[in-house]
């Protein structure tokens, strides 16, 4: 790799080897900032999924990861993390060109991915069962046992970070993995395979392949030889995966969409609200499941907040991430059409665009203006549906209960936020918000260590933090009758 040029053909990683697709198919990969093809990847299909699942199954049955001392398994994960970190600059460039992220954001992705491996590397020897007293003559204990082959499907918005959090957790708990990377932005996921190869992860323990969702993805999640599914993506795809899982009674972790709201109480620090809101809705060009896509503002400070956020949005530079701009492109022409369509509908339904509302005219790539809508009513589409772009919907409230009702008033329940200087108000609101994660005074407060996941249609199960480990194991109880004699007294 030289300058801003990257490798032009990427193979799948199956059973510890880099491979073409069985049928020789390829998928062209576009740079969303220029709409130019920058690379091709092998297009995984059924035969490739079968090979990957067979490799993962064989490795699991060989008990290689399970029989290791937990400390040694942890060291393996630490090694993967070390290699990811060493590759961070290269990953950042690739991710910037493939996904459209700014270079700084892409580097953060690589560092976060590395950190998932080191975080869960430190957890392998702390996964403990418990002893259950059954009285004299018995010993009973529980074991956190891995499921087996974990099938993982990730979306394009944070492919590396999302893949890393699921792969790391699966390996830490002794599972083997087949991961399907997203066809729109697959390249960074290959670095997990590269880091695993460099770290000496046994062949078959981690398999990474790209392919289309309706084909490669659908076959993977319905495969008769998988034991566990981790899916991150849209509600619609999640529902179809759940139907496949139901056929075989496979446990799932579902990380789906969101329409998360921050509530601004009148005593909030408005500088903090502005900075946090800009990060919450404009980072990654708003293509974030946990984006703060709604702001519910007390009428006393409503106009001030609107003006501050409008000014902040208007000040953002837009352009290719590689040029160090604030706001990169959306992932595809289709995504740009969709986001602009939501903005047109918002205007038609009576909301007011105080800034933005349209694509950036004349750009080669898929650039959307940072957008703020005021006068948003709860029944408008822009208040209910996930836009997945840099578009903020602002709603006003008078009474605290009304703010909670508005915030909880969608089918989603991923994140929520509260801006206030009063701890009582923060606790009161956090108690009533229906969401997997509540941020107070800073959207995205937290990181690798903090459990993340949804309620309602945002899904179930938790990723990140120690809680995630519980989604990758099933409790096995072992009950032992020690001796037929009273009290288990040893014989002579
Ligand atoms: P998507 O559902 O279209 O695709 C996600 C992945 O599923 C892709 O890899 C795709 O190829 C695959 N897929 C598609 N159809 C499939 C099928 N029938 N069977 C198996 N796999 C299939 O979602 P997207 O557009 O890539 O991502 C955006 C969505 O993801 C948004 O709704 C966003 O909120 C959500 N998301 C959620 C989280 C979270 O952690 N909760 C994180 C990021 C993104």
Description:
With 492 residues, the chain is α/β, with parallel strands linked by helices. It folds into two domains: 248 residues, Aldehyde Dehydrogenase, Chain A, domain 1 (3-Layer(aba) Sandwich), CATH 3.40.605; 181 residues, Aldehyde Dehydrogenase, Chain A, domain 2, CATH 3.40.309. The protein has a seven-stranded mixed sheet, sandwiched between helices. Helix 10 links the parallel strand 12 and strand 13. Helix 1 runs parallel beside helix 8 and helix 5 runs parallel beside helix 6. The longest helix is centred in the first third of the chain and has 19 residues. The N and C termini lie far apart (73 Å). The mean pLDDT is 96. Bound molecules: nicotinamide-adenine-dinucleotide.
Shape: globular
CATH structural architecture of the largest domain = 3-Layer(aba) Sandwich
Helix content: 25-40%
Which class do the helix and strand fractions yield? alpha/beta
Helix count equals 15
Strand content: 15-25%
Strand order of the largest sheet: 14-15-16-13-12-18-19
Low-confidence stretches: none
What is the total number of structural domains?
Answer: 2
How many extended strands?
22
Largest sheet: 7 strands, mixed
Cofactors, ions, other ligands: nicotinamide-adenine-dinucleotide
What order do the helices and strands come in, and which of them pair?
Blueprint: E1 9-10, E2 12-14, E3 17-19, E4 26-31, E5 36-42, H1 46-61, H2 64-67, H3 70-86, H4 88-99, H5 103-121, E6 138-146, E7 149-153, H6 159-172, E8 176-181, H7 190-199, E9 206-210, H8 213-221, E10 228-232, H9 235-248, E11 252-255, E12 260-264, H10 270-282, E13 292-298, H11 302-315, H12 333-348, E14 352-355, E15 371-374, H13 381-384, E16 391-397, H14 400-407, E17 412-413, E18 415-419, H15 423-432, E19 437-440, E20 455-456, E21 459-460, E22 473-481
Parallel strand pairs: 1-5, 7-8, 7-10, 8-9, 10-11, 12-13, 12-18, 13-16, 15-16, 18-19
Antiparallel strand pairs: 2-3, 4-5, 6-22, 11-21, 14-15, 17-20
Helix pairs in contact: 1-8, 3-5, 3-7, 4-5, 5-6, 10-11
The chain binds nicotinamide-adenine-dinucleotide (NAD).
């Amino acid at each position: 790799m030289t300058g801003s040029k990257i490798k032009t053909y990427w193979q799948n990683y199956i059973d510890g080897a880099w491979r073409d697709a069985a049928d020789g198919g390829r998928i062209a990969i576009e740079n969303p900032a220029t709409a130019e093809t920058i690379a091709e990847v092998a297009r995984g299909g059924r035969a490739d999924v079968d090979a990957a699942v067979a490799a993962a199954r064989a490795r699991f049955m060989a008990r290689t990861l399970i029989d290791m001392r937990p400390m040694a398994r942890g060291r393996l994960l630490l090694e993967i993390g070390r290699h990811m970190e060493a590759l961070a600059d290269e990953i950042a460039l690739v991710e910037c060109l493939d996904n459209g992220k700014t270079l700084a954001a892409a580097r953060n992705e690589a560092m976060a991915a590395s950190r998932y491996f080191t975080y869960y590397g430190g957890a392998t020897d702390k996964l403990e069962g418990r002893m259950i007293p059954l009285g004299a003559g018995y010993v009973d204990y529980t074991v956190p046992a891995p499921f087996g082959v974990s099938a993982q499907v990730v979306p394009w918005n944070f492919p590396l970070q999302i893949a890393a959090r699921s792969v790391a957790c699966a390996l830490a708990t002794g599972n083997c993995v087949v991961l399907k990377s997203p066809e729109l932005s697959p390249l960074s996921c290959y670095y997990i395979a590269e880091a695993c190869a460099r770290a000496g992860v046994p062949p078959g323990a981690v398999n990474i392949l790209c392919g289309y969702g309706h084909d490669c993805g659908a076959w993977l999640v319905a495969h008769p030889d998988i034991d566990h599914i981790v899916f991150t993506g849209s509600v619609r795809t999640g529902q179809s995966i759940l139907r496949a899982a139901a056929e075989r009674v496979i446990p799932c972790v579902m990380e789906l969409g969101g329409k998360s709201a921050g509530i601004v109480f009148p005593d909030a620090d408005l500088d903090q609200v502005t900075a946090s809101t800009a990060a919450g809705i404009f980072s990654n060009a708003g293509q974030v499941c946990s984006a703060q896509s709604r702001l519910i503002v007390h009428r006393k400070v409503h106009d001030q907040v609107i003006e501050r956020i409008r000014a902040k949005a208007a000040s953002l530079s837009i352009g290719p991430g590689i040029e160090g701009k604030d706001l990169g492109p959306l992932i595809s022409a289709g995504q740009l059409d969709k986001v602009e369509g939501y903005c047109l509908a918002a205007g038609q339904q009576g909301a007011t665009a105080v800034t933005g509302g349209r694509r950036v005219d004349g750009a080669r790539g898929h650039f959307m203006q940072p957008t703020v809508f005021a006068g948003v009513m709860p029944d408008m589409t822009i208040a209910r549906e996930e836009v997945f772009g840099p578009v903020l919907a602002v709603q006003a409230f008078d009474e605290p209960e009304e703010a909670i009702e508005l915030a909880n008033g969608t089918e989603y329940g991923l994140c929520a936020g509260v801006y206030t200087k009063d701890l009582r108000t923060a606790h009161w609101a956090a108690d009533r918000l229906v969401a997997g994660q509540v941020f107070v005074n800073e959207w995205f407060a937290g990181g690798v260590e903090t459990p993340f996941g949804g309620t309602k249609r945002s899904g179930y199960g938790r990723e990140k933090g120690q809680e995630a480990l519980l989604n990758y194991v099933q409790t096995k109880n072992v009950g032992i009758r020690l001796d037929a004699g009273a009290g288990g007294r040893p014989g002579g």
